[in-house]
Amino acid sequence: MTYVTKVVQWMRDHFSNPEMLANGFWIVVKIIIIYFAARVCIKIADKMINHMMSAREKSPLKFDVRRTNTIGRLIHNLISYTVNLICILLILGQVGVNLGPLLAGAGVLGLAIGFGAQSLVKDVITGFFIIFEDQFGVGDVIQIDQFKGTVEEIGIRVTRVKSWTGEVHIIPNGNIKQVTNFSTYNSLAVVDVAISYEADLDRAIEVLKETVKQVHEQMGNIVKEPEVLGVQMIGNSELKLRIIAECKPNTHAEVARRMNAEIKKQLDASGIEIPYPKVVTFVKSERAVMD
Question: How does this chain sit within the bilayer (predicted)?
Answer without folding.
Answer: Multi-pass membrane protein
